[in-house]
Structure formats: C-alpha cells, structure tokens
Amino acid sequence: MLLRNEGFRRLCRARERLQQVDECAPTIEELARELRISPFHFIRQFEMVFGVTPHQYRIQARLDRARQLLAAGQLSVTDVCMEVGFSSLGSFSSLFARRFGESPSAFRRRVHASDLTPGCLSLMGAPRDRSFREA
Amino acid sequence: MRIKLTSVMVDDQEKALRFYTDVLGFRKKHDLPVGEFRWITVTSPEGPDDLELALEPNANPAGRTFQQAMFTQGIPLAAFQVDDLPAEFARLSARGVAFTKAPTPAGPVTLAVFADTCGNLIQLYQRV
C-alpha cells in the first residue's frame, strides 16, 4: 500500500485522537468518518501502518498512561482506572496484567518499594516536587 | 573504533521481532531477557553477521514523544541499503507493508520510505 501525504497525515491525526482519554474521545466510526473512508479501510490502513488495530492502539495508550500515573503514586489503582477511561476495574486489571506481566497494584507496590535512579522510567513518572537529590 | 551495532526504538519488541524477521527478512541473532524487556538484535542475511541492529523497547515516555513526532513529520529513523529498490518495493508491498514514499530518484540514490509497524519510518535506498 502506498499512502499519499494527506492519507498519512490523517492517520497520524487519528493516532493522536486515539490517545485521548476524556469523554470526547471519538469512536472508531467517528474517526473513519473524519478520514472520509469506511471503518473497514480505516482499521486496515491503521493496522498496516501501526501494527495494531485502532481499538488495540487506544487500549495500549490508556494502559501506558495508567502505568505512568501508577508510577507517580498519587492516585489509587481505582482512581487511575477511571482516569484513563476504563469503567471496569476488573477488565482494567486484567488488560494491564496481560500487557505488563503484573497487576496494577503489584506494579504500584514494586515501583514504590524500589529506589528511584535519576533518568530511569520510574523517575519520569515521579511527583514533580521530588528532586533528584531526594531520589 | 568501529560501528558494529545500531538500534531502532520499537513500541513492542515481540511485534518488532516478527516484522523485522518475517517481513523484512532479517535474522534473529540475540534474544536475551533483560529485566522486564529483552535484548534483541537482528542481522542481515546479505551483510556481515556481526553488524547488528538492536530492537530497543521504547518504554521511556520522552522517547515515545520523540518517536511519534519524527513519525508524524515523516522523518525516517533508520535507513537500509538495497541492491534493487523497485524489487524490494514490490516484495514488501505484497507482504502488506505501507509505504509513504514510492521509489524516488534523489541525487546519487533512489529512495523509498515505509512504516515498520512499531512506530518508525524506515528509508530504503539504492545507489544509482
């Protein structure tokens, strides 16, 4: 498949929109309509470019955001679940464990039990008022 | 001093390993567990066996932001040389690879660009 400039730009915009977790997050059908292609072609093109379907991409983006929030440690697992747009704690925990190999609560405990090293992933998700010296 | 190893950041190492081997045709050289990630390298069947490409996990949010911005701007993050670009373009297109640039003359080379399904654009080039 050869993507023309406009088609490529639209897919990139769709990817950004799929990272939205608020109430205005668009459905797959709405995104396809914005791209002026059928949902079938949108899903097919998106998967060829990004290796996952739009739905899978949205779930992954939400789980990645959840991981960052859990590493920051200011929100409970339930709060994080709601914050990233999941309505069921059970499905959130199950999807999180499938992607990262441990439950959200186990991840939260592990990150906060370990020392933070400047530059590491856990530090990037740490509270803003925590200095390198404290870390 | 020699260059023996380079890398591309990937959003999913398992998916990347499948794409870089099954689709592009590289060979897996190393696949070792490193904490929650893996140290995965591939080599080209046409190139030296000790010249490796690492498929690095892009778990750092700053890295992801960089990768996504470069992708959106259409900038490739790696380039591979081929002997017959039209043939590679046809072979990879038949395997479902999405190109953003068809083979195009550009001075001393002809080049094409495709999405690696792992968050990167990759350039192929053939010397004229």
Short description:
Chain A is mostly helical and about 140 residues long. Chain A contains eight helices and no strands.
Mind explaining what this structure looks like?
The termini of chain A are far apart. With 135 residues, chain A is an all-alpha fold. Chain A has 2 domains: 5-51; 59-124, Homeodomain-like (Arc Repressor Mutant, subunit A, Orthogonal Bundle). Chain A is elongated and about 50 Å long. Helices cover 64% and strands 0% of the residues of chain A. Chain B has one domain (5-127): 2,3-Dihydroxybiphenyl 1,2-Dioxygenase, domain 1 (Roll). Chain B has 3 helices and 8 strands. Chain B has helices spanning 13-23, 61-72, 85-94, and strands at residues 5-10, 27-34, 37-43, 52-57, 78-81, 99-106, 109-115, 121-127. In chain B, a hairpin with a 2-residue loop joins strand 6 (99-106) and strand 7 (109-115). Chain B is globular, with a radius of gyration of 15 Å. Chain B starts with a strand and ends with a strand. At the A-B interface, helix 1 and helix 3 of A face helix 2 and strand 6 of B.
What would you call the shape of chain A?
Answer: elongated
Q: How many DSSP-defined strands of chain B? A: 8
The fraction of residues assigned to DSSP E strands of chain B is 35-45%
Average pLDDT for all residues of chain B: 95
**Percentage of residues in helical conformation of chain A:** 55-70%
Q: How big is the Rg of chain A?
A: 18 Å
Per CATH, the class of chain B reads Alpha Beta
Spatially, the strands of the biggest sheet of chain B line up as 1-4-3-2
Query: What's the rounded overall pLDDT mean of chain A?
Result: 83
How many independent structural domains of chain B? 1
Q: What would CATH call the homologous superfamily of chain B?
A: 2,3-Dihydroxybiphenyl 1,2-Dioxygenase, domain 1
How would you spell out the order of helices and strands of chain B?
EHEEEHEHEEE
Task: Name the quaternary structure.
Answer: heterodimer
Largest sheet of chain B: 4 strands, mixed
Question: What's the helix count of chain A?
Answer: 8
Spatial gap, N to C terminus of chain B: 29 Å
Largest sheet of chain A: none
CATH class of the largest domain in chain A: Mainly Alpha
CATH superfamily of the largest domain in chain A: Homeodomain-like
The radius of gyration computed from the alpha-carbon positions of chain B, rounded to a whole number of angstroms, is 15 Å
Strand content of chain A: under 5%
